[in-house]
UniProtKB/TrEMBL annotation:
<keyword id="KW-0695">RNA-directed DNA polymerase</keyword>
<dbReference type="InterPro" id="IPR051083">
    <property type="entry name" value="GrpII_Intron_Splice-Mob/Def"/>
</dbReference>
<dbReference type="InterPro" id="IPR043502">
    <property type="entry name" value="DNA/RNA_pol_sf"/>
</dbReference>
<comment type="similarity">
    <text>Belongs to the bacterial reverse transcriptase family.</text>
</comment>
<keyword id="KW-0808">Transferase</keyword>
<protein>
    <submittedName>
        <fullName>Retron-type reverse transcriptase (RNA-directed DNA polymerase)</fullName>
    </submittedName>
</protein>
<dbReference type="InterPro" id="IPR000477">
    <property type="entry name" value="RT_dom"/>
</dbReference>
<dbReference type="InterPro" id="IPR013597">
    <property type="entry name" value="Mat_intron_G2"/>
</dbReference>
<keyword id="KW-0548">Nucleotidyltransferase</keyword>
<dbReference type="Pfam" id="PF08388">
    <property type="entry name" value="GIIM"/>
</dbReference>
<feature type="domain" description="Reverse transcriptase">
    <location>
        <begin position="1"/>
        <end position="90"/>
    </location>
</feature>
<dbReference type="GO" id="GO:0003964">
    <property type="term" value="F:RNA-directed DNA polymerase activity"/>
</dbReference>
<dbReference type="Pfam" id="PF00078">
    <property type="entry name" value="RVT_1"/>
</dbReference>
Length: 217
């Protein structure tokens, strides 16, 4: 809290006062500044180094970088053309406009680090060892968390989230092989069984609603 308050005056107010034409976002000690060109970015970087020195701080040498937001219109070659911020990776991606035509857009999607964190968290739920629970129990216990992931990471370029959500079904299939004797040692059969339930009860899990909608079920 104190660090955030300090940066509010050391960075936010300073940017508004000294560089009001440069938009920026900051969360805790991470910030993104939107410069018009490389010259402006290099100038701002020098000024930021000076400012941080004035207030007794130092820019992180690995996290502080100039990134070229390459897309279909900005096609120059540059060393760095992607960056991570607040759980998203921003880079050039193939997108579709409202007329159904594809183009290259610089846009965010869930970062590899965030996807790995989701997989790590879901692994910690130990679904295969919860054979005393029914699907409805697991849904009530974990659906709010899954829905939260979808709400946040599915806001932009939702398809990048799908592989991570499919990991949840693989863990549910492992749970089913422990829960039901007829499915033991038959993970593929368990996956098919889950798939049938997902079609019949798409609202049971938040990611089932999403994946069923994508599949057009």
């Amino acid at each position: 809290m104190l660090a955030n308050l300090f940066l509010h005056y050391a960075f936010d107010k300073w940017m508004e006062r000294e560089h009001s034409s440069i938009p920026f976002e900051r969360y805790a000690d991470d910030a993104v500044c939107h410069c018009k060109n490389q010259a402006q970015a290099e100038y701002l970087l020098r000024r930021l180094n000076e400012r941080m020195s004035e207030v007794g701080l130092e820019l992180h040498p690995e996290k502080t970088k100039i990134v070229y937001c390459k897309d279909g219109d900005r096609r120059k070659d540059f060393a760095l053309t992607r960056f991570d911020f607040f759980g998203y990776t921003y880079r050039a991606r193939r997108s579709k406009n409202k007329w159904g035509k594809y183009f290259i857009n610089f846009t965010p999607a869930i970062s590899n680090k965030a996807a790995k964190a989701i997989r790590h968290t879901s692994r910690g739920w130990n679904w295969p060892k919860r054979s005393d629970k029914d699907l409805e129990d697991l849904s009530q216990m974990f659906n709010p968390i899954i829905q939260g992931w979808i709400n946040y990471y599915g806001r932009y370029y939702k398809s990048a989230l799908y592989p991570t959500l499919r990991c949840l079904d693989r863990r549910l299939a492992m749970w089913a092989t422990r829960k039901y004797k007829r499915l033991r040692c038959h993970r593929r059969r368990a996956a098919q069984w889950l798939n049938r339930i997902a079609r019949r009860q798409p609202n049971l899990f938040a990611h089932w609603r999403l994946m069923n909608a994508v599949a057009g079920r």
